[in-house]
Every structure is written in structure tokens, then in C-alpha cells.
Design a protein that fits this description.
four-stranded antiparallel beta sheet; OB fold (Dihydrolipoamide Acetyltransferase, E2P); Elongation Factor Tu (Ef-tu), domain 3; 25% helix; six-stranded antiparallel beta barrel; 41% strand; alpha+beta
Amino acid sequence: MHFVPKVIGLIIVATLFLECKSKKGAVTGGRNSGKNVPLSVEGFLVRASSVSDAVEVPGTLFPFEETQIRAEVSGRVVFLNIQEGTQVKKGTILAKLFDRDLQAQLQKLQVQLEIAVKTVDRQKDLLAINGISQQDFDLSALNVDNLKADIQTTRISISKTEIRAPYEGKIGLRNVSLGSYISPTDIITTLREVDKLKLEFSIPEKYAKNIAPGYAVKFKVDGGKKEHEATVMATEGNVDQNTRTLKIRALVNESHPELVPGVFAKVNLQLGRDNNALMVPSQAVIPQARNKQVILLRKTSARFVVVETGIRDSAYVQIVSGIHAGDTVITSGLMSILPDGKIKISKLTHL
């Protein structure tokens, strides 16, 4: 009777021992087999593409030419031909100052010149028969030249009383009235050439090498709906040391109601263009304390490489160095991958 319980106990112990050994073998076998099973991840095939850095900077529109119209001499305004807000041709008389005294002086000199010329003609005949000396003749001829010079000076003085438009443009507001006494410090009106405009803006110094004459830029004015275009005319000779920006001037060959001199403009630039840029998804870049890394597929293994990034947008980032076109960059499971770990691509995408 005592033999049966002992047999039953031995059977139970043996069964438990065999179960534990089986479980241990199963666990050990599972770990060994896991080393040979590659991790399934997604990849991105790197290809060369065109990319540029979109930069928006403030700008201002200016007239292509703008001149404050002033008189060269002081005087009383006796004639005004300023229709505010209208176009005028080059050379149009805008204002006239009193010049009767100069006109009278001119007339007097012209009469003196006529008499002097006749005197020279008579003395020329006398000189031929030795009726007068050469010195007397030369003095009379000198008098004629002096009178001609005085007439020319007077005509120049008269021309200074005529204020003319230096070029074709649009007249601004009039600041003087008929009969006013003005001096060279007084602004009569302003003339602007608005058939074409100038757009001035500044860009960060790192983009200075990307802008040159002929470069096309797009802009919108404050409150405007249409996008306009301008062509770079010139750049400043140096970068501003205070703002670290380079001043740019562009030509706007367009006439539109939105384009009013002095308005604020938003200039959109596509700078740093690279037609062979290597772009990867942003999530593929692993930030480190001192650098940035991506994981590349090398045959069936993972390889961590240090990279340098460039232009970035909402979904992709440019890799400047560290990878080449044709490489496959891992984009998923980055936290589970170990260096030289086995991986396989379950899904491959590209631009």
C-alpha cells in the first residue's frame, strides 16, 4: 500500500522535470532563431531632384525716376502749367518766372551788337586802305565778341526762369501759386516716371551669391491679389555690416492699378536652387548630440552614417553629404535597428 504513493510521486517529479526542460529548450531555441530573422522595415530610394529654398522678404516700390521740381533762380511766378496728376512730355514748361528785365537787357545787347558789327565792317574797309590802325580794328572786333558773349549769358539767365520737365512723367501735387515769390529751396511740384517702377529689398548675406542682374523675382503688394514679376537690375556693392543683408534693386516693367510707388511688397524668392539635390523624408534623419545620422541598407544589413543637412520643407530634408543617389534610406523602425543588424525592405518609396 505504501509502494503506490511513492510511484505516483516519482511519476509527477519526472513529468515536471521533462516539462521544464522542454520549455527551456523552446526558449533557447527561440532566441537563437531570432538572430537570423531580419527586421522588416520601410525604405526610401534616394534620387537626384530639383529643390530651392523659398524665402519671403519685405520690399518697397519706388518710381523709376523721381525729381523734386525747383527753380534755379529766385523770382515771381508769372505762369503755371501744372495739372496735378497728369502726364507731361519732356521739355514741357511747368512754370515761368518774371524775366522782363532780362528780356530788356537782351534787346539792348542785340542793338549794341548790330551797331558793333556795322562798325567792324566799315573799319575793315578802312584798314584795307590804311585808314585806321590794326589795333583800332582789333578793338572793334573784340567788342563784337564781348557783346555776343553777353547775349549768350543773358539768354542762359532767361532760360533759368523757365522750369521745364526733365523727362516724361506724372506730375504730383502743386506747392506754389501764381504770383508767388519762390527761391531755389522751394519745391514747386514732384515729377515721377511711373510707367516702370523700381522694387527694392534686402536678402540675407548667405544668399548673396545666388542673386545677379537678370534674376527674376515675384512679389505681391500689400492688399493686392495679383502676383507681379520684376527683374534684378543691380545689387549693392557690399553687405550691410549692421543687418548682414544685401540690398537689391529690381525693375518692374508693368503698369497695374495695384502698383503704386511707395507701397509695401512681399517678395518671394527661390534661392539656393540645386538641380541635383538628394532629398529624404524628415523622419529618416536621426538627431544626435553632435551630428545627424541616417540608416542605410547595405545588402541585408543596417549601416549608420553621419550626414549634413541643407534645405528643409514640411516633409523632406536635403542631405548635403553622407549619402549618394541610389542609396536606400530606412524610414521606419529606427529605434529597433542596431548597427549591422539584419533588415529587409517591406515597402520602398521614392520622389
